[in-house]
Design a protein that fits this description.
It contains two helices and no strands. By secondary structure, the protein is mainly α. The radius of gyration is 27 Å and the shape is rod-shaped.
Length: 60
């Protein structure tokens, strides 16, 4: 009876370890995706090239 209990306990410990590993992997993926979105943001729209800025001043 005691051996069965220990085997069941070990099974659930291993299962919990696997879940924690997968959760941490998911968390890393979420953080990587968040950083990629953050780095690709253009909060003020597309930044004009210097040549485009010069063209804009010559027309006025």
């Amino acid at each position: 009876m005691c051996i069965v209990f220990l085997l069941i306990l070990e099974y659930y410990r291993e299962k919990e370890k696997k879940e924690l590993k997968s959760m941490s992997k998911k968390k890393k993926e979420e953080e990587r995706a968040w950083k990629a979105r953050k780095e690709n943001q253009k909060p003020h729209g597309k930044v004009k090239a210097f040549a485009e800025l010069v063209e804009g001043t010559e027309k006025t």
